[in-house]
Design a protein that fits this description.
- There is one protein chain.
- The protein folds into three domains: about 200 residues, no CATH class; about 120 residues, no CATH class; about 120 residues, Beta Barrel (Lipocalin), CATH 2.40.128.
- It is built from two helices and 38 strands.
- The strands form ten sheets. It has a five-stranded mixed sheet, with no helix packed on it. Strands 21-22-23-24-27 form a five-stranded mixed sheet, with no helix packed on it.
- Strand 4 and strand 5 form a beta hairpin.
- The protein is globular.
- Keywords: Membrane, Signal, Transmembrane, Transmembrane helix.
- It comes from Shewanella gaetbuli.
- It is found in: Membrane.
Amino acid sequence: MRLNSILIPLVSGLAALSTLFTGSAKAQEKLTFLEYTIEADIELVQPAFSANILDNEGNEIIAIGVDGKYQRWLYIYGFSNDKLVLLDKQPLSHDLYRYDVYLPDELTDKRQLQKLYFLSADSLWFYQPGHAVLASVENQPTVSEIVNIAPISSITLVPQADFISRGQFVKDINNDGEGDIIISDFKEVHLMLSQPGSSAAIPNFTRQSLPLLPIIELTKSGAEYSRPELHITDTNFDGKDDIIKVGEGLLEVYTQLDSGLFTNSANYISVSQPISGVDWWNKRDIYGRQLDQSDLMYRKVEKIADINADGITDLVVRYTKSSGVFDRSNDYEVYLGQNKDNVLFFPREANSVIRADGTLSGLNFVDLDSDAKLEVVVSGFDIGISQIIGALLSGSIDQDVYVFKMNDQYIFPKSANLTQEVELNFSLTSGQSGEPVVSLGDLNGDGFKELILSDDEKSLKIYQGKAGASPFVSRSDELKFALPTEGSMVKLTDINHDGKDDLLVHYGRQDDKALQRKVLVFIAQ
């Protein structure tokens, strides 16, 4: 036997072992951040968010606030010479009640400029930058403006709004990478499809209306109207996304045409289970009251999308079972779609059921390991009498965070791959409740998302992502700062376009007054 025949496998094995330990060490490398602070001269009344709306370095940070005279303002911050500065500010009329911007998904070029839109009762408005590149408000005059670009018909008829908030009316409906507009009125849903190539000027639209009624809830004094929830995904295997509204026991589908428009009449996909697109607490019985919780079984569609990366749309349903107010459970049923002669079909029995202790809520599908298959992150808590009494005495209640990872057969396990505990706080004095931080993002750019949880009022625990059945390391990093009472105000997004998610932190009305004009930015290194 030659010596080489022994040494070569030995060297190869040592090299593989070295690679394994090197990769493990890299995954365990401590996360570091550069911290920036925005101190606004107005009270920030809506969560700040990040979007690429100016031809400037990285994303901008967009904030909405009110000054001492109750004038509303749009403030836009961005990086200039490694400093976070105010690039632009615009007064907002009180007839504006919603704003939104298209945020591209992980597969879209995030450097593409996006558009910031506003709604009033009868018009669509657009933030038009005054310069291609803005240095700062201090260095050059602001000549940008918010312009009226199109008349609309909507279900919101208020001439003056008490507040302005983020909406969900901008989406890429027809797969062209441009944000489109969706607006509902009392009889139809109106689509305004952006025309590619109009990014530098006022956008142009192709209009289409679909016979989709709003959600109508009858009350003793009249009726309440809200925009129907629409799902955008491919249902006929032509590679183009279609528009879906969930009906009672079926899916109402408007198919996308080669032109980018949609069919004017619906096709219907029957579902074996009695599904609905409306939450059970918004339903009424024959007496006009909420449904009886002593004997309740109800299936509400939560998601319609391809979750297992096989190119076929799947269906996720929240199955609520209740035999009383304190005896209720929510399971999430996953029905994997099938292609039957180019017709989307769902089986009668769920392929997987997401189930855990307590009442589950906050379902989130996310790709943790960049394999295009979606994992499940969901929260659960007990609502029994003993838990409620304990919560009243302590002012907090334990909340479990569960992570489920599907196997190679596209089946989720019966038990969670990972369970962590966070704390939900509330105040009997104010009648308001807090919210723990439960978020996910790739903070080190390795393709694996980290799990970010609140530890206490002044620190986050960050569990780095990794390959394997357990998606996170067991030992956490720590990031210390004053956490907002509402954990949803900690956002993760790649602000500087370096492939690593960063943290954007806003404070709300439940936080100290001194914090309500602050925004913290943590840039991952």
